[in-house]
Amino acid sequence: KQEVTQIPAALSVPEGENLVLNCSFTDSAIYNLQWFRQDPGKGLTSLLLIQSSQREQTSGRLNASLDKSSGRSTLYIAASQPGDSATYLCASETGANNLFFGTGTRLTVIP
Amino acid sequence: NAGVMQNPRHLVRRRGQEARLRCSPMKGHSHVYWYRQLPEEGLKFMVYLQKENIIDESGMPKERFSAEFPKEGPSILRIQQVVRGDSAAYFCASSLRRTSGSTDTQYFGPGTRLTVL
Questions:
Q1: Mind telling me how many Å the CA of B110 is from chain A's nearest CA?
Q2: Rounded Cα gap, residues A78 and A62, in angstroms
Q3: Using CB atoms, which residue from A36, A98, A102 is nearest to B59?
Q4: Which residues of A fall below an 8 Å CB-CB distance to B?
Q5: What is the mean pLDDT of chain B?
């Protein structure tokens, strides 16, 4: 069964700093790896989806990488802003028809 | 183009009552997924449905929980005889299609927060 781990559990950075969030998964036979953002009391917003054949995806200040062989993905956020404060979740999809989520990294960007 | 809609957003039930959670997928989406997020835990898959069919319910508790996605109307997650341990946020997601070896992005609703007193 797929297990997804995210470290750190919480992270505080000053505004403007670049940062990296880490995600690891135990089963490398994935279809894709997704990064989501969850704001308190809200639903999930999909940020980036990397198919298994891809190595990275970029959207604005966000860049996600995928290394299937080592079972790792990273989310890089450039020039962080207070509006980036949220919980970031990674999720992998295998052939089991569903997403396996990590427990998230709670990010606080301090103005 | 409205996103995934869930209602109610907040639901309070006493132990032993029934809870019904509704999910309307995005327009044109015929695949629906339900997830549960317990306090301080990650989201856990419960069930995957297509119109009138349950495809995968491997994450659903064996008793008291059921789900449906009728030909017309929203998908319903039903919890009978709720207990305090059912208190959680329940999220629904929908996707456009699935093809062998790859999937579409799942779009999530805002969730229903169930509190059992």
A1: 4
A2: 7
A3: A98
A4: 4, 31-32, 34, 36, 41-46, 49, 51-52, 89, 91, 93, 96-104
A5: 91
Mind listing the pLDDT tens digit for each residue in A36-54? 999 987 889 989 999 889 9
CB atoms within 10 A of CB B98: 16
* Calpha distance A96→B102 (Å, rounded): 12
Calculate how close chain A gets to B72, using CA atoms only, in Å: 23
Residues of B in contact with A48 (CB under 8 A): none
**B71 Ramachandran zone, left/alpha/beta (phi>0; psi -120 to 50):** alpha
Tens of pLDDT along B35-68? 999 887 889 999 999 988 999 998 999 999 999 9
Instruction: Compute the 3-state secondary structure of chain A and give helix, strand, coil in percent, each to the nearest 5.
Output: 5, 60, 40
Tokens representing residue A52 in the block? 């298994």
**Cα dist from B117 to A43, A71, B15, B41, B85, whole Å:** 23, 41, 6, 20, 10
Q: Which of B15, B24, B25, B35 minimizes the C-alpha distance to B85? A: B15
